[in-house]
Amino acid sequence: MTPRESQSAIMTRSAAERYAERHRRYTTALRNGKPDRVPIRPFVAEFTARHAGVTCQQVTHDYRLAFEAVRRTAMDYDWDAVVSNMVYCWTGLTEAIGLKYYGVPGLHVPKDVGFQYREPPEEEAWMPPEDYDALIGDPTGYLLNVWLPRVSRDVVAPGAPNTARNNLSFLSGGMAMMSYFNAFGEQNRRLREECGVVPAIAGILKAPLDILADKLRGYLGLCSDLFERRDKVRAACEALMPHLFHVALSGADPNREVPIGFWMHRSCVPLVSPDDFNEFFWPTLKPIVLELWRLGHQVLFYAEGNWDAHLETFAQLPEGSIVFHVDRTDIFRAHRVLGHKFCLSGGVPNALLSYGRPEQIRARIRQIIDGVARDGGYIMDASAIIMNDAKPDNMRVLTDFTHEYGVY
Amino acid sequence: MAVLKPLLTETGAEPIGKLVIGTVKGDLHDIGKNLVAMMMEGAGFQVVDLGLDTQPEKFVNAVRELNPDLLGMSALLTTTMPAMGDTINALIEAGLRDRVKVMVGGAPVTQGFCDEIGADAYSPDAASAVDTALELVGAPKK
Ligand code: B1M
């Protein structure tokens, strides 16, 4: 027996059948085809804790509990695919290296509030403007030797006097990293084999311009740079391309079945002007997407905010190379411009899931399915990640009505 | 922002009204709120910015002490939207609700939510927020 065969032998038959059916449904839609019904793939974060009856602190402190909450939620709701763990911040890892930038539930924010990234004020940005040349010269070296010591309470910069805490942070941080990241393999296996649910994405991509704003210069810092040092911004984006490509590829699905998740935070209007999008964002992103596609990897554009101004640009990408997720983009326009080439997902406002009435949710789903999903190529999801304020009853309505109305 | 601010705000005219604005409790998103604040200043309002993660009591105290015409609240997370309602309730409890018009906004906020929590106006973006504010203080639209 091959390892694959022996694995399937221990799968319970019904889970195996469910997996095959959901996998077919999800991957057919990803490829812009028409499955038996609209697949459901909600990007659930802290909602899983609410469903499992535990706090945000518990799922952030104990990733096994977080994984279990994801499996339970996906099974109980009968979803086709989920992200293995959207509450991705694990206290064990952040505390092992003394990471400064997360507010952790129970430690820095109340125990029932989700973990949160905290952006420093402009003058305390992780990367000051005078560091551009160092970043451009050796991006990976810069991240390791300069950026990491700044974002950690324990890591000391090369050349500075060593400390026991520094040594320990590498030891315990490395061990934490290994156990956490290795556990994802097991989580994905259990999702497939025990729950019959498809792990929705594999790997992570961020655009060079986004990462510059997100984790290095901060949004306001980047805005100043777009006035004062445009050449440096361009060179930094170009320098970051190989690093970000490598990160995306190393986590990608070896079977090339599910897409790489691409988090599009901050490069749409009004955060970035269309001119800056055309000059910085797109030229340093497009080659990465094309190269990943050449290697057989689809990319899920998780397009936060409103990307109406850029749909025609995305439409130039090769057919099937991306999936376009709708947050505040006009979903009907997205369908007109992109629908002939790419699958769409999302478009159900999160506020509706938290504060809306069932008939409002049904009306939105009907509108989406009639408007963009008639020929397939659509995956049901909320607009943004689903936190612990989403009402369980509303999530049930989203699920049941899609099952009912989304049959082809 | 620092570059744009003087261009947007240097008009030299008497303020046409006073706005106290802030991002609500638990919310650290302030890019949109800052845009709204700057456009309001540009339109001639005196703006007092309470910053982000603003507790209801801080809004209430600002209304009591500064006597603004308008109180603006911004929320970007569905989890923090209820803090807008909490603030309005705190204003009612303090007997100050009638002294100020309340405006709300932020990506997940809707007209329906605004009505439900008893705010006076909702605006989907900074430009329409200015128009709404002018209307609320009875000034002609620009
Ligand atoms: C008074 O009257 C008015 C009238 C009109 C008003 C108004 C008030 N306020 C706004 N308006 C209106 O006018 C403005 C101009 O036209 C508009 O303002 P907006 O604010 O809507 O628009 C801005 C000009 C541009 N938009 C923005 O600035 C928001 C952009 C996105 C990318 C975003 C950012 C930048 C950030 N984030 Co956050 N962030 C996202 C956002 C996703 C996206 N791309 O939309 C969102 C909002 N974040 C989210 C999340 C989950 C989070 N974030 C977090 C953190 C952050 C950063 C700190 C990294 C950063 C904020 C930096 C800052 N200083 O503001 C965390 C929470 C922190 C906290 N407690 O608040 C964290 C929890 C993530 C984490 N686990 O760390 C999501 C919310 C999901 C939900 N269910 O609600 C999110 C939609 C991303 C996503 N797709 O999942 C209008 O709404």
The dominant shape of chain A is globular
Q: Which class of chain B in CATH terms?
A: Alpha Beta
Query: Which molecules other than protein and nucleic acid are bound?
Result: CO-5-methoxybenzimidazolylcobamide
Number of helices of chain B: 6
Query: What's the total count of β strands of chain A?
Result: 10
Q: In terms of structural class, how would the helical and strand content of chain B be classed? A: alpha/beta
What would you say the CATH architecture of chain A is?
Answer: Alpha-Beta Barrel
In CATH, the topology of chain B is named: Rossmann fold
* Residue-averaged pLDDT of chain B: 92
CATH top level of chain A is: Alpha Beta
Distance between the termini of chain A: 38 Å
Q: Which chains make the largest contact?
A: A-B, 26 and 18 residues
**Number of individual domains of chain A:** 1
Oligomer: heterodimer
* Strand/helix succession of chain A: HHHHHEHEEHHHEEHHEHEHEHEHHEH
N- to C-terminal distance of chain B: 22 Å
Q: Characterize the main sheet of chain B.
A: 5 strands, parallel
Arithmetic mean of pLDDT of chain A: 96
Uncertain residue segments of chain B: none
Proportion in β-strands of chain A: 5-15%
What does this structure look like?
The complex is a heterodimer of chains A (408) and B (142). Chain A is α/β, with parallel strands linked by helices. Chain A has one domain: TIM Barrel (Alpha-Beta Barrel), CATH 3.20.20.210. Chain A has 17 helices and ten strands. Chain A has helices spanning 3-10, 13-30, 47-52, 56-61, 63-77, 91-96, 132-137, 139-151, 164-195, 208-228, 230-251, 274-294, 311-314, 331-338, 350-355, 358-372, 392-405, and strands at residues 81-82, 102-103, 116-117, 198-199, 204-205, 260-264, 299-303, 322-326, 343-346, 378-379. In chain A, the strands form three sheets. In chain A, strands 5-6-7-8-9-10 form a six-stranded parallel beta sheet, with helices on both faces. A two-stranded parallel sheet of chain A has the order 1-4. In chain A, helix 16 (358-372) runs parallel beside helix 17. Chain A is globular and about 65 Å long. The two termini of chain A are 38 Å apart. The mean pLDDT of chain A is 96. A five-stranded parallel beta sheet of chain B has the order 2-1-3-4-5, with helices on both faces. In chain B, helix 2 packs across helix 6 (126-136) and helix 3 (56-66) packs across helix 4. The model of chain B has no long low-confidence stretch (mean pLDDT 92). With 142 residues, chain B is α/β, with parallel strands linked by helices. Chain B has one domain (19-136): Rossmann fold (3-Layer(aba) Sandwich). In chain B, 42% of the residues lie in helices and 17% in strands. Chain A binds chain B through residues 109, 113-114, 116, 118-119, 219-220, 223-224, 227, 270-271, 305, 328, 349-351, 353-355, 384, 387-390, and chain B through 1-3, 26, 28, 31, 35, 77-79, 81-82, 107-110, 113, 116. CO-5-methoxybenzimidazolylcobamide sits between chains B (21, 26-33, 35-36, 72-74, 76-78, 103-108, 123, 125-126, 129) and A (114-117, 119, 219, 265-266, 270-271, 304-305, 327, 350, 384-385, 387).
